[in-house]
Protein backbone atom coordinates (compact mmCIF):
# COMPACT_ATOMS: atom_id res chain seq x y z
CA UNK A 1 0.00 0.00 0.00
CA UNK A 2 1.36 3.42 -0.96
CA UNK A 3 2.04 5.86 1.86
CA UNK A 4 1.03 9.49 1.64
CA UNK A 5 3.18 10.90 4.49
CA UNK A 6 0.58 13.58 5.07
CA UNK A 7 2.03 14.23 8.51
CA UNK A 8 5.17 15.88 7.10
CA UNK A 9 4.80 18.73 4.66
CA UNK A 10 7.44 20.79 2.80
CA UNK A 11 6.49 24.47 2.89
CA UNK A 12 8.42 27.43 1.42
CA UNK A 13 9.69 28.43 4.88
CA UNK A 14 10.75 24.96 6.06
CA UNK A 15 9.52 21.44 6.67
CA UNK A 16 6.37 21.29 8.77
CA UNK A 17 5.82 18.30 11.07
CA UNK A 18 2.04 18.60 11.19
CA UNK A 19 0.96 16.47 14.22
CA UNK A 20 3.57 18.16 16.43
CA UNK A 21 3.06 21.61 14.87
CA UNK A 22 6.83 22.01 14.70
CA UNK A 23 9.18 23.12 11.92
CA UNK A 24 12.61 21.92 10.83
CA UNK A 25 15.17 24.66 10.05
CA UNK A 26 12.46 27.27 9.43
CA UNK A 27 13.52 30.46 7.65
CA UNK A 28 11.31 32.57 9.90
CA UNK A 29 10.49 32.60 13.60
CA UNK A 30 8.04 29.90 14.73
CA UNK A 31 6.72 28.76 18.13
CA UNK A 32 8.56 25.40 17.97
CA UNK A 33 11.64 24.60 15.83
CA UNK A 34 13.95 21.63 15.34
CA UNK A 35 17.34 22.88 14.13
CA UNK A 36 19.96 20.74 12.38
CA UNK A 37 22.99 23.02 12.84
CA UNK A 38 24.13 26.57 13.47
CA UNK A 39 24.71 28.02 9.98
CA UNK A 40 22.59 31.08 9.30
CA UNK A 41 20.57 29.50 6.49
CA UNK A 42 19.36 26.78 8.90
CA UNK A 43 19.38 28.47 12.31
CA UNK A 44 17.91 31.81 13.32
CA UNK A 45 16.73 33.56 16.46
CA UNK A 46 13.21 34.35 17.57
CA UNK A 47 11.73 30.87 17.98
CA UNK A 48 9.63 30.15 21.05
CA UNK A 49 11.34 26.77 21.59
CA UNK A 50 14.52 25.66 19.80
CA UNK A 51 15.44 21.97 19.92
CA UNK A 52 19.03 21.15 18.90
CA UNK A 53 22.23 19.54 20.11
CA UNK A 54 23.99 21.30 23.00
CA UNK A 55 26.77 22.38 20.62
CA UNK A 56 24.33 23.92 18.13
CA UNK A 57 22.48 25.71 20.91
CA UNK A 58 25.78 27.16 22.15
CA UNK A 59 26.59 28.34 18.62
CA UNK A 60 23.13 29.90 18.28
CA UNK A 61 23.48 31.62 21.64
CA UNK A 62 26.85 33.05 20.56
CA UNK A 63 25.49 34.27 17.24
CA UNK A 64 21.83 35.11 17.92
CA UNK A 65 21.45 35.21 21.73
CA UNK A 66 18.88 32.40 21.67
CA UNK A 67 19.22 31.06 25.20
CA UNK A 68 15.51 31.46 26.00
CA UNK A 69 13.55 28.38 24.94
CA UNK A 70 16.68 26.35 24.15
CA UNK A 71 16.06 22.61 24.55
CA UNK A 72 19.15 20.39 24.22
CA UNK A 73 19.03 16.90 22.71
CA UNK A 74 22.13 14.70 22.70
CA UNK A 75 23.11 12.51 19.76
CA UNK A 76 21.15 9.27 19.93
CA UNK A 77 18.61 10.63 22.41
CA UNK A 78 14.94 10.29 21.42
CA UNK A 79 12.30 12.76 22.54
CA UNK A 80 8.57 12.57 21.95
CA UNK A 81 6.69 15.58 20.61
CA UNK A 82 2.95 16.09 20.77
CA UNK A 83 0.98 14.10 18.23
CA UNK A 84 3.09 11.01 18.88
CA UNK A 85 6.11 12.09 16.83
CA UNK A 86 9.46 10.69 18.03
CA UNK A 87 12.58 12.73 17.22
CA UNK A 88 16.17 11.49 17.33
CA UNK A 89 19.27 13.55 16.53
CA UNK A 90 21.96 11.67 14.57
CA UNK A 91 25.45 13.00 13.63
CA UNK A 92 25.65 14.67 10.21
CA UNK A 93 29.43 15.25 10.03
CA UNK A 94 29.00 18.82 8.73
CA UNK A 95 30.21 21.10 11.57
CA UNK A 96 30.32 21.03 15.36
CA UNK A 97 26.88 19.96 16.66
CA UNK A 98 25.40 19.26 13.23
CA UNK A 99 22.71 16.61 13.16
CA UNK A 100 20.35 14.72 10.95
CA UNK A 101 16.85 14.67 12.41
CA UNK A 102 15.10 11.31 12.40
CA UNK A 103 11.31 11.59 12.69
CA UNK A 104 9.17 8.53 13.45
CA UNK A 105 5.39 8.57 13.29
CA UNK A 106 2.65 6.09 12.37
CA UNK A 107 5.22 3.42 11.52
CA UNK A 108 7.03 5.73 9.07
CA UNK A 109 10.57 7.13 9.23
CA UNK A 110 11.79 10.41 7.75
CA UNK A 111 15.39 11.69 7.95
CA UNK A 112 16.10 15.39 7.39
CA UNK A 113 19.84 15.74 6.95
CA UNK A 114 20.32 19.51 6.95
CA UNK A 115 23.86 19.73 5.53
CA UNK A 116 26.29 16.82 5.73
CA UNK A 117 29.58 15.42 4.55
CA UNK A 118 31.04 11.92 4.48
CA UNK A 119 34.76 12.77 4.89
CA UNK A 120 36.41 12.41 8.33
CA UNK A 121 36.63 15.68 10.24
CA UNK A 122 38.55 16.06 13.52
CA UNK A 123 36.13 18.75 14.71
CA UNK A 124 32.86 16.77 14.73
CA UNK A 125 31.45 13.21 14.86
CA UNK A 126 31.08 11.43 11.50
CA UNK A 127 27.86 11.07 9.48
CA UNK A 128 25.79 8.03 10.42
CA UNK A 129 23.79 6.22 7.75
CA UNK A 130 20.19 5.98 9.00
CA UNK A 131 17.72 3.90 6.95
CA UNK A 132 14.35 5.57 6.40
CA UNK A 133 11.31 5.85 4.13
CA UNK A 134 11.88 9.48 3.11
CA UNK A 135 15.39 10.92 2.94
CA UNK A 136 15.70 14.71 2.73
CA UNK A 137 19.11 15.52 1.27
CA UNK A 138 20.99 18.66 0.36
CA UNK A 139 22.48 19.03 -3.14
CA UNK A 140 24.97 21.86 -2.69
CA UNK A 141 27.50 20.04 -4.88
CA UNK A 142 24.94 18.05 -6.81
CA UNK A 143 26.80 17.96 -10.14
CA UNK A 144 29.12 15.18 -11.37
CA UNK A 145 32.01 17.63 -11.83
CA UNK A 146 32.30 18.05 -8.05
CA UNK A 147 34.71 15.46 -6.67
CA UNK A 148 36.49 16.71 -3.57
CA UNK A 149 40.17 15.68 -3.32
CA UNK A 150 41.62 14.13 -0.13
CA UNK A 151 42.11 16.91 2.38
CA UNK A 152 45.67 15.72 3.07
CA UNK A 153 46.55 16.78 -0.49
CA UNK A 154 45.15 20.28 0.09
CA UNK A 155 47.02 20.62 3.39
CA UNK A 156 50.23 19.54 1.62
CA UNK A 157 49.67 22.26 -1.01
CA UNK A 158 49.19 24.88 1.71
CA UNK A 159 52.24 23.81 3.76
CA UNK A 160 54.38 23.44 0.64
CA UNK A 161 53.62 27.00 -0.41
CA UNK A 162 54.36 28.22 3.13
CA UNK A 163 57.73 26.44 3.17
CA UNK A 164 58.65 27.86 -0.23
CA UNK A 165 58.04 31.44 0.92
CA UNK A 166 59.29 31.77 4.52
CA UNK A 167 59.28 35.58 4.31
CA UNK A 168 55.56 35.69 3.52
CA UNK A 169 52.43 34.31 5.18
CA UNK A 170 49.59 32.25 3.76
CA UNK A 171 46.25 33.94 4.35
CA UNK A 172 43.41 31.40 4.25
CA UNK A 173 39.84 32.58 3.79
CA UNK A 174 37.51 30.20 5.59
CA UNK A 175 33.89 30.40 6.71
CA UNK A 176 33.67 31.43 10.38
CA UNK A 177 31.67 28.41 11.57
CA UNK A 178 33.10 25.02 10.75
CA UNK A 179 35.52 25.64 7.89
CA UNK A 180 38.01 27.80 9.82
CA UNK A 181 38.18 25.33 12.71
CA UNK A 182 38.48 22.35 10.37
CA UNK A 183 41.36 23.93 8.45
CA UNK A 184 43.19 24.60 11.71
CA UNK A 185 42.55 21.07 13.04
CA UNK A 186 43.65 19.49 9.74
CA UNK A 187 46.84 21.56 9.78
CA UNK A 188 47.54 20.17 13.24
CA UNK A 189 46.84 16.63 12.01
CA UNK A 190 49.33 17.26 9.18
CA UNK A 191 52.03 18.03 11.76
CA UNK A 192 51.90 21.84 11.65
CA UNK A 193 52.14 22.86 15.31
CA UNK A 194 53.39 26.43 14.92
CA UNK A 195 51.13 29.24 16.13
CA UNK A 196 48.28 30.07 13.75
CA UNK A 197 47.10 33.66 13.56
CA UNK A 198 43.41 34.60 13.52
CA UNK A 199 41.33 37.50 12.31
CA UNK A 200 39.46 38.79 15.35
CA UNK A 201 36.07 37.77 13.90
CA UNK A 202 37.04 34.08 14.23
CA UNK A 203 38.26 34.07 17.82
CA UNK A 204 34.99 33.53 19.71
CA UNK A 205 33.88 30.62 17.54
CA UNK A 206 37.28 28.96 17.79
CA UNK A 207 37.17 29.32 21.58
CA UNK A 208 33.69 27.78 21.62
CA UNK A 209 35.02 24.77 19.69
CA UNK A 210 37.77 24.43 22.30
CA UNK A 211 35.17 24.54 25.08
CA UNK A 212 33.61 21.45 23.49
CA UNK A 213 36.93 19.60 23.45
CA UNK A 214 38.26 20.38 19.96
CA UNK A 215 42.02 20.99 20.26
CA UNK A 216 43.11 23.74 17.87
CA UNK A 217 46.60 24.26 19.25
CA UNK A 218 48.16 27.68 19.80
CA UNK A 219 46.09 30.50 18.29
CA UNK A 220 47.13 34.14 18.23
CA UNK A 221 45.30 37.24 17.11
CA UNK A 222 46.65 39.24 14.17
CA UNK A 223 45.84 42.41 16.09
CA UNK A 224 48.47 41.58 18.69
CA UNK A 225 51.28 40.65 16.28
CA UNK A 226 53.84 42.42 14.10
CA UNK A 227 54.50 41.69 10.43
CA UNK A 228 57.81 40.03 11.28
CA UNK A 229 56.15 37.71 13.80
CA UNK A 230 53.70 36.49 11.16
CA UNK A 231 56.28 35.71 8.48
CA UNK A 232 56.27 31.99 7.68
CA UNK A 233 52.92 31.44 9.42
CA UNK A 234 49.35 30.61 8.47
CA UNK A 235 46.74 33.30 9.02
CA UNK A 236 43.02 32.44 8.92
CA UNK A 237 40.33 35.02 8.20
CA UNK A 238 36.71 35.23 6.99
CA UNK A 239 36.45 35.17 3.17
CA UNK A 240 35.31 38.81 3.18
CA UNK A 241 38.67 39.89 4.65
CA UNK A 242 40.88 38.22 2.01
CA UNK A 243 41.24 41.35 -0.11
CA UNK A 244 40.16 43.83 2.53
CA UNK A 245 42.22 46.75 3.84
CA UNK A 246 42.76 44.64 6.97
CA UNK A 247 45.11 42.30 5.07
CA UNK A 248 47.61 45.13 4.47
CA UNK A 249 49.00 44.58 7.96
CA UNK A 250 50.22 41.10 6.90
CA UNK A 251 53.66 40.24 5.48
CA UNK A 252 53.06 39.94 1.69
CA UNK A 253 50.24 37.39 2.07
CA UNK A 254 49.70 34.49 -0.33
CA UNK A 255 45.91 34.49 -0.60
CA UNK A 256 44.21 31.10 -0.27
CA UNK A 257 40.57 30.11 -0.03
CA UNK A 258 39.23 26.91 1.54
CA UNK A 259 36.00 25.99 -0.23
CA UNK A 260 34.43 23.29 -2.33
CA UNK A 261 33.73 26.04 -4.87
CA UNK A 262 37.46 26.36 -5.51
CA UNK A 263 36.99 23.44 -7.90
CA UNK A 264 35.52 26.10 -10.23
CA UNK A 265 38.42 28.20 -11.51
CA UNK A 266 36.22 31.20 -12.24
CA UNK A 267 35.26 31.41 -8.56
CA UNK A 268 38.93 31.50 -7.57
CA UNK A 269 39.64 34.24 -10.11
CA UNK A 270 36.66 36.28 -8.94
CA UNK A 271 38.08 36.31 -5.40
CA UNK A 272 41.67 36.96 -6.57
CA UNK A 273 42.75 33.72 -4.91
CA UNK A 274 46.34 32.70 -5.55
CA UNK A 275 46.08 29.31 -3.83
CA UNK A 276 42.67 27.61 -4.22
CA UNK A 277 42.10 24.88 -1.62
CA UNK A 278 39.28 22.49 -2.48
CA UNK A 279 38.04 21.80 1.05
CA UNK A 280 34.33 21.32 1.56
CA UNK A 281 32.04 20.61 4.50
CA UNK A 282 29.41 19.21 2.12
CA UNK A 283 29.15 15.87 0.35
CA UNK A 284 30.42 15.79 -3.23
CA UNK A 285 28.55 14.17 -6.12
CA UNK A 286 29.82 10.66 -5.46
CA UNK A 287 29.07 10.93 -1.75
CA UNK A 288 25.55 12.25 -2.37
CA UNK A 289 24.67 9.34 -4.65
CA UNK A 290 26.41 6.76 -2.45
CA UNK A 291 24.54 8.03 0.59
CA UNK A 292 21.19 7.62 -1.14
CA UNK A 293 22.13 4.06 -2.08
CA UNK A 294 23.19 3.26 1.50
CA UNK A 295 20.15 4.85 3.13
CA UNK A 296 17.94 3.27 0.43
CA UNK A 297 14.77 5.31 1.04
CA UNK A 298 11.44 4.80 -0.69
CA UNK A 299 11.66 8.43 -1.82
CA UNK A 300 14.28 11.19 -1.74
CA UNK A 301 13.47 14.87 -1.25
CA UNK A 302 16.18 17.18 -2.60
CA UNK A 303 16.75 20.72 -1.42
CA UNK A 304 19.07 23.79 -1.42
CA UNK A 305 21.40 22.99 -4.25
CA UNK A 306 21.70 21.59 -7.76
CA UNK A 307 18.48 19.58 -7.66
CA UNK A 308 18.13 18.87 -11.40
CA UNK A 309 21.17 16.62 -11.81
CA UNK A 310 20.40 14.64 -8.66
CA UNK A 311 16.78 14.26 -9.75
CA UNK A 312 17.99 12.92 -13.11
CA UNK A 313 20.31 10.46 -11.35
CA UNK A 314 17.33 9.13 -9.40
CA UNK A 315 15.33 8.71 -12.59
CA UNK A 316 18.15 6.79 -14.27
CA UNK A 317 18.37 4.50 -11.24
CA UNK A 318 14.60 3.98 -10.98
CA UNK A 319 14.37 5.79 -7.66
CA UNK A 320 11.57 8.13 -6.60
CA UNK A 321 12.59 11.72 -5.90
CA UNK A 322 11.27 15.27 -5.82
CA UNK A 323 12.78 18.73 -5.43
CA UNK A 324 11.60 20.98 -2.62
CA UNK A 325 11.06 24.70 -3.14
CA UNK A 326 12.41 25.94 0.18
CA UNK A 327 13.55 29.54 0.54
CA UNK A 328 16.51 31.11 2.27
CA UNK A 329 19.22 28.57 1.57
CA UNK A 330 22.62 29.81 0.40
CA UNK A 331 26.13 28.59 -0.32
CA UNK A 332 27.53 29.72 3.05
CA UNK A 333 30.91 30.39 1.40
CA UNK A 334 31.64 26.67 1.54
TrEMBL record:
One term of GO molecular function: ligase activity
Keyword annotations from UniProtKB, A to Z: Exonuclease, Hydrolase, Ligase, Nuclease
InterPro entries for the chain: MBL, RibonucZ/Hydroxyglut_hydro, Xnuc_lig_assoc
Leader peptide range in chain numbering: none
Entry EC no(s): 3.1.-.-
Catalytic class of the enzyme: hydrolase
Descriptive protein name: Ligase-associated DNA damage response exonuclease
